[in-house]
């Protein structure tokens, strides 16, 4: 699998991860490893935030949207 963002830039780079949000293959230059909050709960609400975060790989566009707040 190749990095999608590199392909848009006209480069050919092997992907090393897949974004957990959009599923795009990304290279080391286009990924962000972040600790993501995890919420637990079903229907009906309320749900609760777990104490620990999970490490996840995001592409840079999804990371930017996730942290826009």
**Structural class designation:** alpha+beta
The helix/strand series, from N terminus to C terminus, equals HEEEEEEH
Please tell me how large the radius of gyration is: 15 Å
Q: Which descriptor suits the 3D outline?
A: elongated
What does this structure look like?
By secondary structure, the protein is of the alpha+beta class. Helix content is 17%, strand content 29%. It contains 2 helices and 6 strands. The chain has helices at residues 4-8, 60-66; strands spanning 17-18, 25-26, 31-36, 39-40, 48-49, 54-59. A two-stranded antiparallel sheet has the order 1-2. A two-stranded antiparallel sheet has the order 3-6. Strands 4-5 form a two-stranded antiparallel ribbon. It is elongated and about 45 Å long. 17% of the residues are buried. The mean pLDDT is 92.
Write the layout of secondary structure elements.
Blueprint: H1 4-8, E1 17-18, E2 25-26, E3 31-36, E4 39-40, E5 48-49, E6 54-59, H2 60-66
Antiparallel strand pairs: 1-2, 3-6, 4-5
